[in-house]
Amino acid sequence: MAKITIQNLKGEKVGELKLLDAVFGLPANDSLVHQVFVSMSGNRRQVIAHAKDRGERAGSGKKPWKQKGTGRARSGSVRSPLWKGGGVTFGPTKDRNFKSKINKKMSQKALKIVLSGKVADNSLIVLDELALAKKKTKQAASGLKKLGLSGSILIGFSEKEKDFQLFFQNIEGVSNIPVEGLNVYDMLMRKNLVLSKDAVKYLEKKYSKEENN
User: From the centroid of its chain, how far is CA 37?
Assistant: First the structure.
């Protein structure tokens, strides 16, 4: 069972916390994590690019000139892809679907593997509580600075700490998420993960329970 240092927002060590191996001590499985990450990326993707085909372009449906006798090439429509302003052949369309489904057990295991990786890389920071004496963004930024973190930060707030999210949300390089919404995609996209003791206990209770079911 791994141990991790508990700090406060002054950067001081205030204790240690034992982490459950069932949640924070799993071996790496890059294949599973990659599969879940790609699925979540596709599910978040917005299909924006769309090229109009000949049926969507504006223009008359009348044949531009008669079939024979003009000396010009045959043409049936001004909306032909061969004409300027005509439709596009094989262009990207908004009908594309990048969504894919990952079953619940795979998703949960991948999340625990990423959490375990954060512990192994010393990228998981556990605080005694995510609370501020003065409810100001300046104090929140100062507290994170005292932790000595470099790179992007993801903070997971427990239910009783959610009122403090407001004061961390405008800090550059910092992202906030309710701990119940913690996921593989957001953790992999940020270098450091900051949780309180309450948030860690929530994750252990939720995912060790799932392990036993």
Answer: 8
Cα separation, 126 vs 2, in Å, equals 13
**Cα 208 to Cα 25: distance, rounded to the nearest angstrom:** 12
- Hey, where are the domains in the chain? 3-45+98-212, 47-97
| Model confidence pLDDT, tens digit, residues 153-173 | 999 999 999 889 999 988 999
Q: In what order do the strands lie in the sheet with 174-178?
A: 13-18, 3-7, 124-127, 192-196, 153-157, 174-178
**How far is the C-alpha of 113 from the C-alpha of 117, rounded, in Å?**
6
CA-CA distance, 100 to 43, in Å (whole number)? 7
> Does domain 3-45+98-212 bear CATH number 3.40.1370.10?
yes
How far is 108 from 186, CA to CA, in rounded Å? 14
Instruction: State residue 212's pLDDT score.
Output: 52
